[in-house]
Design goal:
Bound molecules: flavin-adenine dinucleotide
CATH class of the largest domain: Alpha Beta
Largest sheet: 8 strands, antiparallel
Length: 452
């Protein structure tokens, strides 16, 4: 654990109970939403960071009902010199709000879809499931990720990669405007015409530049898709990955795929002796007819033969349950050299290995073709990501020369390592924007970008 991270876990120097009580009194007087404090049942559930090993203990949790509550909470934190943090779902919270004020946006969850402009306007507390449900009847889809319970705001501010990203880019690339409360308490609109520097930084720079209260972004004309997975025995993993590395170069942007090295399911369609044994799974989503997908997949599958089990079918985008790996130990790659395939397969199949899941995802397509004003999503030219659910030194040693230390903000584990998610030029520019909008680094309980 880095020193910076350790420091974030402590109450600030000089914190006094009287000061904290005064802050809570002020919040209770001036905030419309609930103000939750220690030992209340709702405080215990709202303060959690369920995907992290931190155990945050803020002085108060503010259930914001609108931008005014966010501004009051921020002003209170600043005037009482208390740390400040914001959270939607908690999926991406890795820095503890100990001794501070935690604003929760869950109640700002309105979703409006404009079918003519093909645009969604959502409150900062919305989750993808709500946007998918509102857009689907109009034959539209957002650039959601693998889990529909993830929050739109945190996901999008960190870039956002999903099953439609090869076709339409990162979620941040579709953002048109954001309403944001900045560190000095202003409620600004960030768009191409209004605070364009802030607008640039927020589309990939995470929660560093203000509290987003609403976001407007493009939806895409995706109604029904072909999707599912094919399961093969683990001993075919190396052959399949070797073919996969060449095959991905020939597929259209409308086809997204990932290879998982995992355990075969306890499903009666899998031979009894193989259930729970190492397996290799190909996940696919294709925005086009199933027969075309079959033709595209044939050269990949010919190397491994018929699957033990397959779940392919056609359905509405949001109904295709693709699952996928959440953030863990991520490596960005330009190709899959033999030694990388070897070490990943060994890590996933060796008895007693701490690694029980590896996801190799195909990037590229529209993600690698940003418009001239696209935001700072660092390593757009990466062709693949390899995500492991555990850290293993032998894997890291083999991967290092091929990853160049690159990371993707949404999949980072260590909040002190945000620099790895950007090119050096973008990181410098981000630090400049940070100095302009948050010179005191009020928004630091995140994947932090310090002011220049
Ligand atoms: C199971 C799982 C699956 C995932 N799948 C994907 C995936 O497919 N693709 C992908 O790109 N990512 C994925 N992620 C990563 C996810 O996008 C990030 O964890 C993201 O930060 C979650 O956002 P949230 O709002 O749900 O989380 P929160 O924990 O609520 O927020 C995370 C951070 O975002 C910032 N933030 C949140 N709301 C605001 C706001 N209103 N204003 C300013 N800053 C804000 C804050 O810095 C906060 O600390 C996944 C995560 C999990 C746990």
């Amino acid at each position: 654990m880095s020193q910076q991270y350790a420091h974030q876990r402590l109450s600030p120097p000089g914190a006094s109970i009287e000061n904290e009580r005064a802050a809570v009194r002020r919040l209770r007087r001036d905030v419309d939403g609930a103000v939750l404090v220690p030992f209340e049942a709702a405080y215990e559930s709202e303060r959690q960071a369920p995907y992290s090993d931190i155990d945050p203990r803020p002085v108060a949790v503010v259930m914001a009902t609108g931008p005014a509550d966010v501004r009051t909470a921020l002003a209170t934190a600043r005037e009482h010199d208390l740390p400040f943090a914001v959270q939607g779902t908690g999926h991406g919270t890795h820095a503890a709000s100990d001794g501070g004020i935690l604003v929760k946006t869950a109640q700002l969850a309105g979703v409006l879809v404009d079918p003519v402009r093909q645009v969604a306007r959502v409150g900062a507390g919305a989750v993808w499931e709500q946007v998918i449900a509102a857009a689907a009847p109009l034959g539209l889809a957002p650039l959601a990720g693998s889990h529909q319970s993830v929050g739109v705001a945190g996901y999008t501010l960190g870039g956002g990669i999903g099953w439609l990203s090869r076709a339409y880019g990162f979620a941040a690339d579709s953002v048109l405007r954001a309403e944001v409360v900045t560190a000095d308490g202003r409620l600004l609109t960030a768009s191409a015409d209004s605070h364009p520097d802030l607008f640039w930084a927020m589309r990939g720079g995470g929660g560093n530049f203000g509290v987003v209260t609403s976001l407007e972004f493009r939806l895409h004309p995706v109604a029904r898709v072909f999707a599912g997975a094919a399961f093969f025995p683990g001993e075919r993993a190396a052959d399949l990955l070797t073919r996969y590395r060449d095959w991905i170069e020939s597929v259209p942007d409308a086809l997204s795929s990932a290879v998982l090295l995992t355990r075969l399911p306890h499903d009666r369609r899998v031979p009894a002796g193989l259930r729970g044994r190492p397996g290799v799974v190909v996940q696919v989503m294709y925005d086009g007819p199933g027969e075309e997908a079959g033709r595209l997949l044939a050269p990949l599958f010919e190397v491994v033969g018929p699957p033990l089990l397959q779940t392919f079918g056609t359905g509405a985008f949001g109904e295709m349950d693709m699952g996928g790996t959440g953030p863990a130990h991520v490596n960005l790659l330009d190709t899959l050299p033999d030694e990388v395939i070897d070490v990943l397969v060994r890590a996933a199949t060796r008895p007693g290995s701490p690694v029980s899941g590896v996801e190799i995802r195909h990037w590229g397509g529209a993600m690698g073709r940003p418009g001239p004003h696209a935001g700072p999503i660092g390593h757009r030219t990466a062709r693949l990501s390899a995500i492991l659910d555990a850290r293993l030194p032998e894997v890291e040693a083999v991967m290092r020369p091929h990853t160049g230390g690159r990371a993707f903000l949404n999949f980072l584990h260590d909040p002190a390592n945000a620099v790895a998610a950007y090119t050096p030029a973008d990181h410098r520019r981000l630090r400049g924007v940070k100095r302009a909008y948050d010179p005191d680094n009020v928004f630091r309980l995140n994947y932090n970008i310090p002011p220049a």
